[in-house]
């Protein structure tokens, strides 16, 4: 019987399976379940995935999560890039419609459409944990992130946390930190002179999350075309938003600005002005919650007029970069194929390739973010005991009772 294969042979067979099939394999065969959960196999499996030059991404479509891989092998050797549609990841719970997703260290933070719950999921290990947000006002435009603090140097003992924040009234903003290793939730109200646009997507780098932000405009201001812009970071160790961090570009209203985490080590920013077809991508050479520096040379600068002929919308343009091949992949609505998404591979010296990226579902509430994904062994701590209530005071903030 196939279930009686020698361990080495079983490991070889399982190592060839895609991530989305691992859960089914564990349920199908007790022996394979044991092999797939062994530390030796998991290390081998993840090492092979990370060694592959394919980019694995997760996207939200039809309120579900879909796995794709982007193959850029040999594009400078006259070989065509390709997209592998690996299919839909297993349902978390039947009937749950996923609206947003964030990623950190192989964990996916999924936000259902009704916004009443949050679930953290490790697709590789098949582990989940649900969290209930304190405030459940559906009118609040909430932003989310998952990260970890730097209290442990071991990647196996990281202290994961969830951030949820939203702007309330005037110059006030409230944020909440949810913990995996204890049952407390800390809500804090602070004064904020900046805001993140509703469509902006955060990027996780080394356990912290960065957003493109702009100075808050007073409600009684006249029409404004120029606004101060910068990065803001939430530091999961100090549980604070850091200072304004400089950008290599300056944007105006309706310009396209999008962030991407490069190997979880650096941050990339895509910039395209609304009144021009010129696209730039810059990459940091140092990024920390309180400091940033950018490479003096732009990673990619391309005139898109002869290649595409239209601008990427300011609320779209998810992208990936391959530093070695000096190319970017921008995922957006296809120009000439209604109801489809396209992946545009853009490189130096006029290199350009358009590939089909799948059906654009009318059920999507916004442009589907493309989340870079690498499987991990990060385990999700489960809730123990009853939830405690406490008052936490941080200097310069107003704390509220949970």
TrEMBL record:
InterPro entries: A_thaliana_F-box (IPR050233), F-box-assoc_dom_typ1 (IPR006527), F-box-assoc_interact_dom (IPR017451), F-box-like_dom_sf (IPR036047), F-box_dom (IPR001810). PROSITE patterns: FBOX (PS50181). Residues 1-45 form the F-box domain. It comes from the Eukaryota. SUPFAM superfamilies: F-box domain. Gene3D superfamilies: 1.20.1280.50. SMART domains: FBOX. Pfam families: F-box, FBA_1. NCBIfam families: F_box_assoc_1 (TIGR01640). This is F-box/kelch-repeat protein. It comes from Cardamine amara subsp. amara.
């Amino acid at each position: 019987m196939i279930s009686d294969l020698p361990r080495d042979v079983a490991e070889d067979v399982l190592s060839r399976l895609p991530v989305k099939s691992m859960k089914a394999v564990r349920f199908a065969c007790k022996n394979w379940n044991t092999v797939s959960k062994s530390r030796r196999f998991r290390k081998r499996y993840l090492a092979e995935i990370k060694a592959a030059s394919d980019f694995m991404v997760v996207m939200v479509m039809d309120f579900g999560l879909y796995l794709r891989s982007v193959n850029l092998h040999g594009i400078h050797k006259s070989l065509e890039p390709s997209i592998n549609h690996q299919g839909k990841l297993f349902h978390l719970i039947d009937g749950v419609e996923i609206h947003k997703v964030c990623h950190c260290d192989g964990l996916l933070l999924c936000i259902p459409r009704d916004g009443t719950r949050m679930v953290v999921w490790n697709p590789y290990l098949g582990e989940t944990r649900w969290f209930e947000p304190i405030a459940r006002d559906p009118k609040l435009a909430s932003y989310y992130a998952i990260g970890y603090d730097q209290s442990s140097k071991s990647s196996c003992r990281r202290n994961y946390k969830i951030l949820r924040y939203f702007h309330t009234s005037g110059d006030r903003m409230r944020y909440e930190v949810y913990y995996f290793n204890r049952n407390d939730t800390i809500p804090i109200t602070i004064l904020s002179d900046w805001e993140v646009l509703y469509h902006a997507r955060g990027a996780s780098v080394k356990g912290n999350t960065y957003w493109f932000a702009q100075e808050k405009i007073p409600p009684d201001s006249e029409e404004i075309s120029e606004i101060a812009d910068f990065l803001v970071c939430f530091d999961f160790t100090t549980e604070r938003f850091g200072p304004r961090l400089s950008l290599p570009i300056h944007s105006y209203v309706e310009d396209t600005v999008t962030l991407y985490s490069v190997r979880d080590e650096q941050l990339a920013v895509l910039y395209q002005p609304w009144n021009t077809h010129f696209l730039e991508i810059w990459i940091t050479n140092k990024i920390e919650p309180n400091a940033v520096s950018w490479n003096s040379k732009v990673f990619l600068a391309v005139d898109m007029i002869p290649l595409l002929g239209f601008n990427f919308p300011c609320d779209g343009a998810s992208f990936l970069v391959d530093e070695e091949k000096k190319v970017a992949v921008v995922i957006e609505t296809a120009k000439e194929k209604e109801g489809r998404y396209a992946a545009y591979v853009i490189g130096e010296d006029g290199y350009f390739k358009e590939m089909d990226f799948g059906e654009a579902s009318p059920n999507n509430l916004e442009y589907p973010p493309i989340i870079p994904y690498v499987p991990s062994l990060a385990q999700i701590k489960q809730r123990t005991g009853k939830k405690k209530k406490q008052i936490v005071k941080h200097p310069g903030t107003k704390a509220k009772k949970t």
